[in-house]
Amino acid sequence: MSDNTRNIYDIARLAGVSIATVSRVVNGSDKVSEKTRRRVLQVIEDEGYTPNVFAQGLGLNTMHTVGILVPDISDLYMSTCVNFLEEELHANNYEVILSCSGFDLARKKNHVEMLLNKRIDALILVGSTYAGDGRSSAQTDYIRDAAKSVPVFVVNGLVEGDNVYCTVCDDRKATRDVTTLLIKRGRKRILFLSDSHSYSAQQKLAGYEEALTSNGLPVLGELRLALGNHEIRCVRDLLLQYQNLAFDAAVAVEDTIAVGVMKYAAIKGLKVPEDLEITGYNNSVVSIAATPELTSIDGRVEEICHETAARLLSVLSGKTDVEKTVSIEPLIVRRSTTDF
Amino acid sequence: MSDNTRNIYDIARLAGVSIATVSRVVNGSDKVSEKTRRRVLQVIEDEGYTPNVFAQGLGLNTMHTVGILVPDISDLYMSTCVNFLEEELHANNYEVILSCSGFDLARKKNHVEMLLNKRIDALILVGSTYAGDGRSSAQTDYIRDAAKSVPVFVVNGLVEGDNVYCTVCDDRKATRDVTTLLIKRGRKRILFLSDSHSYSAQQKLAGYEEALTSNGLPVLGELRLALGNHEIRCVRDLLLQYQNLAFDAAVAVEDTIAVGVMKYAAIKGLKVPEDLEITGYNNSVVSIAATPELTSIDGRVEEICHETAARLLSVLSGKTDVEKTVSIEPLIVRRSTTDF
């Protein structure tokens, strides 16, 4: 078979080497053994593969393809990620195939398989849900399996494995920092609101609890609210049901949750930030739409995506010294719902 | 070649017929000529294609695939669409490949080609940008070309052509209705704010102007603001620059634009809705995050997506009497920024 639809992925598979190795051979790198080099060149010749055309991304069949998997594309954080990744990859002659897996493990596995079947050159998993709960490695075995075929990049989640590259936001530090700032302002009963059990949500909770403990405040179960979702009105209505829950600050894992707390405060006649300080997370459009504007943690999604795309391009171009894990430090964007 | 990776698309291509025809043959429909039926069955036999397994969506290689193209996945309206479409298609054993084309015609064409090369069974284009400006048919020729290979479904845009199916929201009626309501409330200088020249934006403008004209009010160029984008703060700051622009109501083509007007009103000390009534569009999370909550037009994205998916499934199952164009009537969601 010598049609011109063979891509670098096919050559790598047929030669039994990684894409990076094929790329090295094509680019004349001296980091490949003579034996491997010969085998790859033989496959390239047998298959009529024209690496230069592919490398330059000319024409349609010559575009490289990256698969991106998200659990839920209607989520603002994730759709923003996909947008940044798509822009950067497209500028480098990579096409993007996106698929939505939901949060169920079996479906995640199916979707990864499906993307691998589409002859992708690399796989990006967006969101900490792909890192499982961070305890059982069985939840992430399918990622290590996928990484045997193509390099895998996890956005905002930590997964260990060969050929798996992670870019994370230090969520733990972020909630530790804002909680500490609230404590220094004299806040004593700080509510923590979360709608998820993801690795990222756990990190945020850990940061909140660390701040309490290291400042001599008790960690109270009643101040840790687990929500069914992050819809503004649901959060507001849930809080209204708690008759005797007193709190003087609220740390939310998502901006819409924080706005739900603001709506609750308005109904209860609580002044923000005087009676109640509130912080959100993700620095989304909602934090600016709210009145007063919401203090929020900026997870620096653009930097995370840029870091992911840059390392992906490095790996696919054959570089071997690419960092496995990069941690981006979040920013606290101070607006009008806090006094710190 | 008789491996089990052949799909309905391959069979259709090899037999020189549409997917719908293959489906009809497989399902024993009598709407296929005997000659065509024989040819399709011969190809199915030659290729070792097992339609029942495919039809039931068992296993990974057996999933059908639908390509979805959006200009900008970080846009709330579009990511919501994709989410609804993906859910519904997945429930019917279709996988989704999503691609982001931007707004440039050449890139749109490239992305459609790329998706067709991924062996999709149908193509969905999300957003009125794919309908061009509604004047030059040259802007949509690539859609009719694509429809020669697979059925094409346009979400919220009108494109005429064989094998092209459209689901639109009656945007014109929506802005005509809200503008009329504002006029009946006594509003005389109603601002219209838009950030786009898409077909949808033109329809919204036409509805606004129709309401003015049919109520004997002048159509004034100074009250028609063309914005560079729909970011809340940009809209607010632009309005603050207009020193002498007086208006007593504002109709925006996007919720974030309307919230920008609300932020402007807050700075100018204008009371909403007493001094200034404001309506948004899309009924997004932003309309609920705002204070007061924003009256918005609900384009009924879920119904539009459901209607699109239902007709897509009908066409692919071989039905021939599927409606070409379906118009969904939008709803006005009254909240606290208007008095009607």
Q: Could you characterize the architecture of this molecule?
A:
The structure is a homodimer. By secondary structure, the first copy, chain A, is α/β, with parallel strands linked by helices. Chain A folds into 3 domains: about 50 residues, 434 Repressor (Amino-terminal Domain), CATH 1.10.260.40; about 140 residues, Rossmann fold (3-Layer(aba) Sandwich), CATH 3.40.50.2300; about 130 residues, 3-Layer(aba) Sandwich (Rossmann fold). Helix content of chain A is about 45%, strand content about 15%. Chain A is built from 13 helices and 12 strands. In chain A, the strands form 2 sheets. Chain A has a 6-stranded parallel sheet with strand order 2-1-3-4-5-11, sandwiched between helices. In chain A, strand 9, helix 12 and strand 10 form a beta-alpha-beta unit. Chain A is elongated and about 75 Å long. The N and C termini of chain A lie far apart (about 65 Å). About 5% of the residues of chain A have low confidence. At the A-B interface, helix 5, strand 2, helix 6, helix 11 and helix 12 of A face helix 5, strand 2, helix 6, helix 11 and helix 12 of B.
What topology emerges from the helices and strands here?
Two copies of one chain form a homodimer.
Chain A: H1 8-15, H2 19-26, H3 34-47, H4 51-56, E1 64-70, H5 76-91, E2 94-100, H6 105-117, E3 122-126, H7 141-146, E4 152-155, E5 164-169, H8 171-184, E6 190-194, H9 199-214, E7 224-226, H10 232-241, E8 249-252, H11 255-268, E9 277-281, H12 285-289, E10 295-298, H13 301-316, E11 325-328, E12 331-333
Parallel strand pairs in A: 1-2, 1-3, 3-4, 4-5, 5-11, 6-7, 6-8, 8-9, 9-10
Antiparallel strand pairs in A: 10-12
Helix pairs in contact in A: 1-2, 1-3, 5-13, 8-9, 10-11
